[in-house]
Amino acid sequence: MKIHKKINFSNMTSLIALLVLCVVISIAEPAFRTWGNMINILQQVTVIAVIALGVNIVIFTGGIDISVGSVVGFTGIVTGKLIVENGISPFIGVAAALIVGVLCGTFNGIMIAKFKLQPMIATLAMMSMARGAALTLADGQTISGYSDSFRWIGVGEIGGTKIPVQIIFMLFLYILMFFLMRYRKFGRYIYSIGGNEEATRLSGINVDKYKIMAYAISGLGASVASVILVAKLNSAQSTAGLDYEMDAIASCVIGGTSLIGGYGSVWGTFVGAIIMIVIRNGLNLLNVSSNLQKLVIGVVILLAVLADSIRHKAGKNK
Amino acid sequence: MKKRVLAVFVLMAMAVVLAACGGNGTNGTSSDLANDSKNGSEGISIAYIVKAKSDEFWTTMEKGAYAYAEKKGVELSFQAPEKETDVEKQVQMMENAITKGVDAIILSAADSKSLIPSIVKANNANIPVILVNDTIDEEALAAEGGKVETYVGIDQYEAAALAGAYAAENVESGKILYLEGISGVKAHEDRLMGFKDQVSDFEIVASQTAKCDRNEGFNVMQNVLSANPEVNTVWAINSEMGQGAVQAIEQGNLSGKVKVFDFDATSDDIEALKAGTLIGTVAQFPNLQAEAAIQSCLDAIDGKTLEAHTKTKAELITAENVEEFEANK
């Protein structure tokens, strides 16, 4: 019960922050409020939000995954090599990219759960390996020229409505994850591992299995995001996704997920990702330099972590 | 177990040391031999440090460099950090090259000031430094007592002016978005000014950096289109951002209405030119730059004095001459 209360509270803080942000930007720049701009924001948030969705699960367990940005680059190149250069059907190309993503994540999970490596170190190694694999495979070339059927994932619109397909994908994945985390035992175990791993193990739950699953989901999220990104830009680059892990982790933190593990929510992270994109979008509209955008996002992350820490203290004093 | 791991580490360390020594040893003898032989460039080693290897511009330069190095019998090591903005890595690469005792260094600086101490260090070690593609802050370099032999590359300002002049002639009442590069990179600033000065009567709708990244370029273009739908011209100072803008415009069904110009003439640019989604792109022939840079190294080692700027070719590619450009590639 207590956990649920906390989740709601953290959800509310970031949601309120988002609303305040939107009101302020709307006043400064009327173009912000347009329907088209709302769609733009959702479209721009998709890649980061989908990566954050997976990373979030890892953070719930008390771990971290900094390899996701590189996995985005690597799996993107996989699609390019298969679909563009070898003419394999997009369906199989996408499936292969997703499998590669899951394998990268599973590898991380095994290293962390079975070989007891620090999550930061294990995923740091994967970050370097996946980026290296992408650079080697692509040999510095940008792969472009995807078929329209593949590009539909990134630029397609739901018949006549102007709503990009990728937004629907993203919302679907979030709803799915929400149910998984809230109504399935998987969710309860993940939170429980983050709360107290030893106690969870002693109560007879196969902690290792769930941890590996969490990292596999994180890898899967990165590869789904990668497919969307490649389809949107009609090109795969070995440098795609650089620094995205930081954006994803920031989304989780801004959304109220605790890096200590054990609590946070799926929708909070969604709101966190939107906050980041709204800041960028708003400052773009206002023609503010991107150097300042970085500064603002840094301050927001700091505030989010401070809020988390204050919440923790308050919880202890009760 | 621990001991065994330790033993493996020690062995690996020894292997690395041996390999490094071995390399130096052969270098020494071959350059001794080279002094006697007629081909003066035999056995010369050059460190070629650029900003990235991850896009076509750099890979074309790399191929051109290795081809020319092989022709001249030069031992070449072409290296780059993962990220164009990773100045720190470049400094390390400079230091490694100096420690290794290469005969010359070719550098494309990721920042116009931060590499200056490394250049001075190379000067002190009597290693000639040649700049390629990116210039640095010359005043600051002189103040530190450093020098470079020459800068090899196109005149970024003049090259951008080619595109600017074309835009001034062909776009009526321009309302322009500038997609800037990375602040502090002189080449990027020159490209911006070169274009700007040609179209001084255009109204500037927005001027934003998209960090030379395609996805970022897409997002900024999309945001600017919704805030200022009247925008009808885009100058992107590199191809990645230009391509991002092209994709965003295509998605907004505004192809043809917004005229995009960019820099680099990558294969994506060529495709876009043919499709009509891109109006012009500036080609800077990185392979020719690599050849000129290596030749400059050899001349400098021979003791020749070089001109401050060794200019290489730049050309505006539009739908009119795209086929010719492709044929000569």
Q: What do you see in this structure?
A:
The complex is a heterodimer of chains A (318) and B (329). Chain A is 77% helix and 3% strand. With 318 residues, chain A is an all-alpha fold. Chain A has one domain: ABC transporter involved in vitamin B12 uptake, BtuC (Orthogonal Bundle). In chain A, the strands form two sheets. In chain A, strands 1-4 form a two-stranded antiparallel ribbon. In chain A, a hairpin with a 4-residue loop joins β2 (157-158) and β3 (163-164). Chain A starts with a helix and ends with a helix. In chain A, 54% of the residues are buried. The mean pLDDT of chain A is 90. The longest helix of chain B has 35 residues, at 2-36. The radius of gyration of chain B is 22 Å and the shape is elongated. Chain A binds chain B through residues 29, 31-32, 34, 36-37, 40, 43-44, 47, 131, 135, 138-142, 144-145, 155, 229, 232-235, 237-240, 242, 280-281, 284-285, 287, 289-291, and chain B through 52-56, 58-59, 62, 82-83, 183, 206-211, 214-215, 218-220, 222-224, 226-228, 243-244, 247, 251, 266-268, 271.
